[in-house]
Specification:
By secondary structure, the protein is an alpha+beta fold. The protein has helices spanning about 50-55, 60-65, 90-100, 115-130, 160-175, 185-190, 195, 205-210, 215-220, 225-235, 255-265, 305-320, and strands at about 5-15, 20-30, 35-40, 65-70, 105-115, 135-140, 245-255, 270-280, 285, 290, 330-335, 340-345, 350-360, 370-375, 380-385, 420-425, 435-445, 450-460, 465-480, 485-500, 505-510, 535-540, 550-555. Helix 11 (about 255-265) links the parallel strand 7 (about 245-255) and strand 8. The model has no long low-confidence stretch (mean pLDDT about 95). One of its GO terms (molecular function) is hydrolase activity.
């Protein structure tokens, strides 16, 4: 359809049942017809360009025959009320959907779209099952928003992501709405946020202590969020009963890839799952120091033009009864092959290949004796892994969402030169290997304190010696017996990556990844709640009785 002009209405009010007024910008075709409605509910500034024509192109969605609504959630920007993350999005979302369905230019069918927090607003509304909601499209999101911070005393805490989000995206508007905003002070803290991420204890973070000492930030950091509110925001177990069709989209280098996958796997309604070579903030195909051809245009085996067209095709099917333009439910970008492939399920059906960690006890640095081999060593050995809280291994690449740190692929050779990093390298590959799915590890470790921290990463070693990250994860385990070996079963990450002939596969292991995660202080406490620690030695074991290994899913 050809629209000569789009009608734009700014800050249209809508009153919730409790009297709170939410406001929305509406974009619609310039005629007297009625159309299905697509709505984005967000806590960020809906006036920013990225929400109009960068992430998805609103004019194209209107031209495709939709009313498009961008709505400030409760307590944000033009909307009234008090903002408290996540807790109102279910009920408010239900009422917003039904309001949108009954606008004079709407035909009663509503779809929700958006990424990150506004992906969560979709899932929260869908759990409430508003009758007019016909499809959703949650992108790079989560169903349990506090999962990496309100996760028990002994689990790793993603505090830097929470700090970055609160100071970088939330606090300024909150203070402005209360008429307490000191712009100069806020901007000073934002400009130095990267340095502030290393402050400990994190739960007494000076930027937020200064700006808003009564913020929700401290409820979360001090574990004072009530069990009722936590339960209200946890949606994963509630997704099993939803039948509203959902288009899930993730990025191989997105900080929220794992929770996006968890939501997709829990979802029992009609669903598709797409993963591209994307970060949380960039779907252009650029990811750190790499550019992935075909990552932004002509995506998928069906060569959908771009993410905007993918959304239009998805909603055309469920809101306009048009044929589904895409066949299989799972669509993955294959890194290294620079192409897309479609599958019947996630994870795809693959073969497995185990590679065992081997060392005579000197696997520190990439100059050490660590190897990846096809059989475990006949003798048992261990490599010492130093954890110095005052000199933690720095965060580099992968899926991160913290101030001053880029997401994606980066050269990491200097990190693998550190004495507090264990490195294990395969022989040079004689043929290509396509890793496809979820990579797992089984590690035998011990700790001198009641907490054991393990950061593990897969990387690609090129013939010229340069090494680039593929996937990584971080685990913290409560130790039952100090200095006694135990087996840690973990998932390193999800990928579709071609290791090329002539390259080598490498695993590196550290006991910290800062500032992405809080630091183990080797005294039973971490940098989230304490300041002082001491250096200590963990151990990683190898051998027939301690067969530490990685398990690779290999495309058949």
């Amino acid at each position: 359809m050809k629209i000569e002009k789009i009608i734009v209405e700014k800050n249209i009010p809508f009153e919730l049942s409790d009297g709170t007024v939410l406001r929305s910008d509406v974009f619609r075709p310039n005629d007297n017809n009625k159309y299905p409605t697509l709505m984005l509910r967000l806590p960020y500034n809906k006036e920013e360009k990225r929400y109009y024509d960068e992430y998805l192109e609103v004019p194209r969605m209107v031209e495709a025959g939709y009313v498009v609504i961008l709505q400030d959630v409760r307590g944000r920007f033009a909307s009234d009320g008090e903002f408290y993350p996540f807790i109102h999005e279910g009920k408010d979302g239900y009422e917003a959907v039904e309001w949108a369905a009954n606008l004079p230019y709407a035909n009663g069918k509503v779809g929700l779209f958006g990424m990150s927090y506004h992906g969560y607003t979709q899932l929260a509304a869908a759990v409430e099952n508003p009758p007019s909601l016909k499809a959703i499209a949650p992108v790079m999101t989560m169903a349990e928003p506090w999962a990496d911070i309100l996760n028990g005393d002994s689990a790793a805490k993603g505090v830097a992501k929470f700090q970055t989000w609160t100071l970088g995206s939330i606090i300024e508007d909150q203070l402005k709405k209360r008429e307490q905003l000191d712009s100069t002070k806020v901007q000073k803290y934002q400009a130095t946020m990267q340095e502030w991420l290393h402050y400990r204890p994190a739960d007494e973070w000076p930027p937020m202590k200064d700006l808003d000492p009564n913020s929700f930030f401290f409820d979360v950091m001090h574990n004072k969020v009530s069990s009722e509110l936590i339960e209200r925001t946890q949606l994963l177990d509630k997704l099993h009963s939803i039948q509203i069709p959902a288009l899930f989209i993730g990025g191989w280098f997105d900080a929220l890839l794992e929770p996006t996958i968890a939501a997709y796997q829990a979802y029992k309604g009609p669903a598709q799952f797409w993963v591209g070579p994307w970060t949380h903030e960039d779907m252009s195909g650029h990811a750190g120091e790499r550019y992935f051809e075909g990552g932004a245009e002509q995506i998928g085996c069906d060569e959908v033009a771009d993410p905007t067209e993918l959304h239009i095709k998805w909603f055309d099917h469920w809101l306009k009864d048009k044929p589904m333009a895409v066949d299989k439910p799972v669509h993955l970008y294959l890194m290294g092959q620079e192409k897309w492939a479609a599958f019947g399920q996630w994870p795809p059906v693959t073969a497995t290949n185990e590679l065992f960690l081997s060392s005579n006890g000197s696997s520190q640095t990439r100059r050490g004796d660590g190897e990846l081999v096809e059989q475990p060593m006949l003798k048992d050995t261990k490599s010492e892994l130093l954890l110095d809280p005052d000199n933690p291994v720095p965060t580099r690449g992968g899926g991160v969402l913290i101030a001053g740190n880029g997401s994606g692929v980066f050269e990491i050779g200097d990190i693998q030169d550190r004495e507090d990093v264990l490195v294990y390298t395969s022989s040079v590959l004689r043929e290509d290997i396509h890793i496809l799915g979820t990579v797992k590890a089984s590690l035998w470790v011990s700790s001198p304190s009641t907490l054991c921290d393990i950061s593990i990463r897969l990387s690609d070693v090129e013939p010229n010696g340069k090494v680039f990250n593929i996937i990584d994860t971080f685990y913290r385990e409560k130790v039952k017996a100090v200095d006694q070996p135990f087996c840690l079963e973990l998932e390193i990450g999800h990928t579709a990556y071609l290791l090329k002939k002539g390259h080598s596969l490498r695993v590196d292991i550290a006991a910290s990844n800062a500032p992405l995660y809080d630091i183990n202080l080797n005294n039973g406490r971490t940098s989230k709640t304490s300041k002082f620690g001491k250096p200590a030695i963990e151990n990683v074991y190898h051998g027939v009785n301690f067969p530490s290994r990685i398990i690779l899913p290999i495309e058949k």
